[in-house]
UniProtKB/TrEMBL annotation:
SMART domains: ZnF_PMZ (SM00575). Residues 155-187 form the SWIM-type domain. Residues 221-312 are annotated as: Disordered. InterPro entries: Znf_PMZ, Znf_SWIM. It comes from Spinacia oleracea (Spinach). It holds the Pfam family SWIM. Residues 236-246 have a biased composition (Basic residues). Residues 276-303 have a biased composition (Low complexity). This is SWIM-type domain-containing protein. Keywords: Metal-binding, Zinc, Zinc-finger.
Length: 312
């Protein structure tokens, strides 16, 4: 959205932007930025001003997190959608109840986890990358170094430093698809090469506390304090809004986008029914077919002959 506000948009730019954003190493990042420079040099200058905030290859490797979107925030907003039309106190109480249930389930799960056990997310990622590693070929170079061939590209790997040339292993903390090929060839356990942030000890520490149940407000102790009344305001007409307010440059939900092409004037942004230019439809295969159909009807086809015989 920030790029769009600065005048950089389009399907080509959108595709190149996500290639740059998801790049784990400098090489892929540079190649994609070169293509963006060919598309628009000003866009490259704008993107280079804040690389650390959105490009994965600039993320801190000690954090072991490669998320470059706000999907978790959108998920939270979706969960609070049924409570948005409530008063502030009722809204906060509904959110507290939802968080208490969610954290409580993870608290019970953390208690039952064994020492060294992986989280569900890490285990799923490891299984997917292990399946992808079957198409890779590893060559031992000595000294704990290996060369893994993935298609037509070679990737050096060092098990001692837990590093791969693709740099995905260093950023996310879980072995990339090249590492399992080496780990299994050396008869090692891939769980030993995953960051401690994805193991039971960190999970238990994260959910060591849970939200305790709370009594109804009518059962709270009385401290003799004056009760705060809500402000006297007039309730607006209509139903309270539940949908979030979209930005000025965001497309309206349910509205047609600019990719719709008119069949009359051949312009984008509207269709032939809402066309105001008054242009005529271009001649094409459909016109020729209708003309042929009309000619066959006027000359009398096989169906016409059958009708005339039946009438006789």
């Amino acid at each position: 959205m920030n790029c769009k506000n600065n005048g950089f948009s389009g399907s080509a730019f959108h595709k190149l932007f996500w290639i740059v954003a998801n790049a784990y190493n400098e090489y892929v990042f540079g190649k994609a930025m070169e293509k963006i420079s060919e598309y628009n040099a000003n866009a490259t200058a704008y993107l280079n001003s804040c690389i650390e905030q959105w490009s994965r290859h600039k993320f801190d490797s000690t954090v072991c997190c490669d998320h470059n979107t706000t999907n978790f925030v959108e998920s939270f907003n979706a969960c609070t959608k049924p409570f948005r039309d409530m008063p502030v106190f009722s809204l906060l109480e509904a959110i507290r109840s939802w968080c208490m249930q969610r954290v409580g389930a993870r608290f019970d799960k953390a208690v039952d986890m064994e020492e060294g056990q992986l989280t569900a997310y890490a285990l799923k990622e490891l299984e997917e990358r292990t399946a992808e590693s079957r198409l890779c070929y590893a060559t031992a170079c000595g000294g704990g170094e290996f060369e893994v061939r993935d298609g037509h590209v070679n990737f050096p790997i060092r098990l001692a430093t837990r590093s791969c040339a693709c740099e995905k292993w260093q950023i996310c903390g879980i072995p990339c698809k090249h590492a399992p090929r080496v780990i299994y060839d050396q008869r090692m356990n891939p769980h030993d090469f995953i960051s401690p942030w994805f193991k039971a000890a960190a999970y238990k520490l994260t959910y060591a506390e849970h939200i305790h149940p709370m009594a109804d407000p009518s059962q709270w102790p009385d401290f003799g304090l004056p009760s705060i009344q809500p402000p006297t305001i007039k309730r607006p007409s209509g139903r309270p809004a539940k949908k979030r307010k979209r930005g000025a440059n965001e497309p309206k939900k349910g509205k047609r986008n600019t990719n719709v092409k008119c069949g009359k004037c051949r312009e984008f942004g509207h269709n032939s029914r809402t066309c105001k230019s008054g242009g005529t439809s271009a001649t094409g295969p459909s016109t020729s077919k209708s003309g042929a159909a009309g000619a066959s009807t006027s000359n009398g086809g096989p169906n016409t002959r059958k009708r005339s015989k039946a009438a006789a």
